[in-house]
Amino acid sequence: MTAGKTFLFMDTIANKVDAKGRVSLPSDYRAIVKELSTDIVCYRSLSSPCIEGCTEELLDRLASDMENSLDFFSQTQDELTNLIFGDARRFAFDSTGRIMLSEKLLKHAEITDTAVFVGKGRKFQIWNPENWAREEARIRAEVFKKRPSLKPVGGQND
Amino acid sequence: MTAGKTFLFMDTIANKVDAKGRVSLPSDYRAIVKELSTDIVCYRSLSSPCIEGCTEELLDRLASDMENSLDFFSQTQDELTNLIFGDARRFAFDSTGRIMLSEKLLKHAEITDTAVFVGKGRKFQIWNPENWAREEARIRAEVFKKRPSLKPVGGQND
DNA sequence: TTGATTCCCATGTTTTCCCATGCTATACCA
DNA sequence: TGGTATAGCATGGGAAAACATGGGAATCAA
C-alpha cells in the first residue's frame, strides 16, 4: 500500500463461520484497518438482508458532522443517530485475523456457516452465499437494462 | 486516521438493574470515559421517555457554543440548555463498572429491572426494553419513508 | 439506629487470546 | 520447465482474561 492512501474494499471472498461465530476478515481488509489505525464497524443494512461494514473512521466523520450544537436538539438527527449508532458495533480482529459477528447481524443476513464478503469501495457487505448469488444476478440484469444510458468512463468503451 | 482517536457510543446492550439500582455501564462506554479522562453525565431526555447520557466534555463544549452564539434566535436553545444543565448529573462507576441511576431518571424512563443502552455516537440513551423495541420499530419505519432524501453516510457514495 | 451508598469479593458466562494444523499461492532452484 | 521449499492465510480447539451480576461488609448521613 502506498503513501497516497487509497483504501478500497474490493473483491468477493467467501469464508467460513465457525461454531463460535468467528469469521476470518479477508486479509486485504485487514491491511486497510491496520494502515488507517482504525477499526471495522458493522451494522445491519437498511435496504438488504446483509451486514454492512466500514471503518470506524468513516462513522466518526458522520458523528462530527452531527455533533455541532446547533443540531443538538434536532429530531431527524436524533432518529438517524439512534438507528445508525444504535445498530453499529466495533469488531476488532484477533491475532489470526478473525472477528466475531453477533447473533443479531448473522440473523439479519441469514448467515449460518459461510459468509461472503463483497467489496463496495469505502464500505463492504457480508452476505449469505445464496442470497448474494441471487443479488448479484439481479444487479447485473439491472445494469444491463440501463446500459444504453451509462456513460463510458475515461472515454473507453466496447 | 488523524492524531485524535475516535470515540463513539455504539451498539444496543441490555443490562440488569439490581435491587440496589446498580447497572453495569457497557465496557465500551467505560473505555471511552477512561480514555478521555472525563465522566458520564446523564439527564432526562427532553423528547422521549428515556435517559440521555454523554461525556461531561461534550456538555462543556455545548456550553461554550451557547455562550458564543447569542444570536437573535437563540432563546429557545437557551431554554433547552437550561433544562438540561438543570437536570444533568455526573455518574461515576465503581471498580466493577457499575453506576447507580437516580430514582428520578429511572422513573422518567420507566425502567425497573432492565436497562437498554443505545449508542448515538457522541451521546447514548438508556431505555426500558419494551419502550425501546417500540421506538426502534417506529424509527425504522420513519427513516425508511424518508430514505430517498437521505444523504449517504459520511458523504461517501456507494 | 435506620437507610442509603460505597467498596470489595465471589461466581458463572462470554469473549478474547494463543497455539496447532492444513491449504494455497508464490518464489526458488535444478 | 517441473518440482519443491516457503510464507501467508483460513480454520479448529483449548486456555486465559474480561465482563455482568449477586451479595456482604464497611462507611456515611440523617
Count of DSSP H/I helices of chain A: 5
In the CATH hierarchy, what is the superfamily of chain A? Answer: Transcriptional regulator MraZ domain
Number of self-contained structural domains of chain A: 1
Order of strands, main sheet of chain A, comes to: 1-7-8-4-3-5
Class based on secondary structure composition and strand pairing of chain A: alpha+beta
CATH fold naming of chain A: Chemotaxis protein chec
Anisotropy-based shape of chain A: globular
Per DSSP E runs of 2 or more residues, the count of β-strands of chain A stands at: 8
Approximately how much helix is present in the residues of chain A? 25-40%
Describe the main β-sheet of chain A briefly.
6 strands, antiparallel
User: What series of H and E elements makes up the topology of chain A?
Assistant: EEHEEHHEEHEEH
What does this protein look like?
The structure is a homodimer of 158-residue chains. Chain A has 5 helices and 8 strands, in the order E-E-H-E-E-H-H-E-E-H-E-E-H. In chain A, the strands form 2 sheets. Chain A has a 6-stranded antiparallel β-sheet. Chain A has a two-stranded antiparallel sheet with strand order 2-6. The mean pLDDT of chain A is 87. Chain A has helices at 27-36, 56-67, 75-87, 103-108, 129-146, and strands spanning 12-16, 22-24, 40-44, 51-55, 89-91, 98-100, 114-120, 123-127. In chain A, strand 7 (114-120) and strand 8 (123-127) form a beta hairpin. The first copy, chain A, has one domain: Chemotaxis protein chec, CATH 3.40.1550.20. Chain A is globular. The interface between A and B is large, with 42 and 41 residues. Chain A binds a DNA duplex (30 and 30 nucleotides) through residues 15-16, 18-20, 22, 24, 27, 92, 94-98, 100.
